[in-house]
Design goal:
Its cofactor is Zn(2+). The chain contains eleven helices and eleven strands. It has two domains: 60 residues, no CATH class; 278 residues, Aminopeptidase, CATH 3.40.630. About 8% of the residues have low confidence. The chain is 35% helix and 15% strand. An eight-stranded mixed β-sheet has the order 4-5-7-6-8-11-9-10, with helices on both faces.
Length: 378
């Protein structure tokens, strides 16, 4: 997730501070890695003109807490082949009896096992060798869950960098709805804000917690016989920290293919309990209003803790990529934003600061989201 619990600094002030310290040499090395640094097109808001900048400029933005999308590869949303189609979003949960066994079989055991190994990589930066290794390890865990279930597939979504995104898909039982799908997502990459490529970045909360939250929801659904009416997919995105790169690639590909995304739920940072107590944060800005209202109802029905409403700003996680191409998306986070984990993007983002029981509450909501919206209800 691209926000920091630090006082926001202007880019010029940040540059002055950094240039005065020992990290200046590292930034200079990064700038001069080639005689002509690659330029990237970066956007700060829906109505803000994008700007061209180097990777080093992007890193400075990141350290300053500026939220952005790197739209170099997708400067404009693609034209939909079915632009007249509008999904129906229900107002209330209806399939409690169907959801109950999946929720009842959720456990923290596998979340602990997966997150412990996942955070052992030096970092999961999307361009690093560690990030490439971590995604290959993660997809094997997902494939192990799906092994032997013919209606479930797991595949790589390749990018121009080595860390691929991962897509696990439940085929729908109603072939008339085969082009409609529900998506539950998280991002798999992590970053050290000072040394992105090689600095230690366990990323336990950001977004290891979201990664294992949806992993456990997926595991319970697979192993307890979930067979949806319309297809349901679980996504683990690459390159979120660099400007939502992986999710932009996937969302644009789906849009160009004419697929109908009914709803997308992002899980980014689900493990930290803030000072104000245990809640599920529901983001209310830059999201679909009807889907967010339904998400509140899902928390009321399936979680054992209340929700709190919060805002995150422009492009703060991968739900923004789906919103940009016109699909309904929503976002849950561990707390209100001002009460969330202060250790993200550092060496201190470690498991010991997190609660697996808290993550499990988000798994419950993810299961409810997948099951409820897999049914056609209009």
């Amino acid at each position: 997730m691209k926000f920091l619990s630090l006082s926001l600094l202007s880019i010029s002030a940040l540059s002055a501070c950094v240039s005065a310290g020992p990290l200046a040499a590292i930034d200079q090395l990064r700038v001069f890695r080639s005689e002509e640094p690659e330029l990237r097109l970066v956007q700060y808001g829906d109505d803000t003109p994008p700007k061209w900048m180097t990777e080093s400029d992007k890193e400075a933005l990141f350290r300053a807490g500026v939220k952005f999308m790197d739209i170099t590869d997708y400067p404009n949303p693609p034209v939909s082949l079915n632009s007249a189609w509008q999904p129906f979003i229900p107002a209330e949960a209806k399939y409690q009896d169907e959801v109950a066994p999946f929720v009842g079989n959720l456990t923290t055991e596998y979340m602990k096992e997966v997150l412990t190994e996942f955070t052992s990589f030096r970092n999961r930066y999307y361009k690093s060798s560690y990030g490439a290794k971590s995604c290959r390890w993660l997809i094997q865990q997902i494939r192990d869950v799906a092994d032997g279930f013919d209606h479930v597939s797991v595949k790589e979504f390749e990018h121009s960098w080595d860390q691929f995104s991962i897509i696990a898909r439940f085929e729908g039982s109603n072939k008339d709805l085969d082009n409609e799908l529900v998506i539950v997502g998280a991002h798999q990459d992590s970053v050290n804000m000072w040394l992105p490529s090689f600095g230690r970045s366990p990323g336990a909360d950001d977004d290891g917690s979201g990664t294992v939250t949806i992993f456990e929801a997926f595991r319970s659904l697979v192993h307890n016989g979930f067979k949806p009416e319309r297809p349901v997919e679980f996504h683990w995105y690459s390159g979120e920290e660099a400007g939502l790169l992986g999710s932009q690639a996937v969302s644009n590909a789906y849009k160009e293919d004419g697929r109908h995304v009914v709803a997308m739920l992002q899980n980014d940072m689900t493990g930290y309990i803030g000072a104000n107590g245990e809640v599920i944060g529901i983001v209310t800005d830059h999201v679909d209003e009807k889907l967010t209202d339904f998400l509140k109802n899902l928390v009321d029905n399936y979680a054992g803790i209340p929700y709190t409403l919060t805002k995150c700003g422009y492009a703060c996680s991968d739900h923004a990529s789906w919103r940009k191409v016109g699909f309904p998306s929503a976002f849950t986070i561990e707390s209100a934003f001002d009460d969330s984990n202060h250790f993200i993007h550092t060496t201190g983002d470690t498991i010991d600061k997190l609660s697996f029981d808290h993550m499990k509450e988000f798994s419950k909501v993810a299961v409810g989201f997948a099951v409820e919206l897999s049914h056609k209800r209009d």
